[in-house]
Design goal:
Length: 78
């Protein structure tokens, strides 16, 4: 079984390759205070993504800590 952070690592890598690291990180910082609300919105949409490629990402972001993990992944200097 994969760890919950693997989909977030893949998402961060995809955003990096697309050149969207900085804009995404900026948006995540702006919306950081409402991580719990964002997680609830993702949970609300879960029935619509079940069985799709993004289900694992949505599951990870359905937890408030998932947004912080994604923020950390994008902020790190490799």
């Amino acid at each position: 079984m994969s760890s919950p952070e693997e989909p977030l690592v893949s998402l961060a890598a995809l955003l990096e390759r697309a050149g969207l690291r900085t804009p995404t990180l900026l948006m995540l910082e702006v919306f950081g205070p409402i991580d719990v609300l964002s997680s609830n919105l993702v949970r609300f949409g879960m029935p619509f993504v079940r069985g799709t490629r993004i289900e694992a990402v949505a599951t990870a972001l359905g937890e408030p800590d998932g947004w912080g993990e994604l923020r950390q992944l994008l902020a790190r200097d490799d």
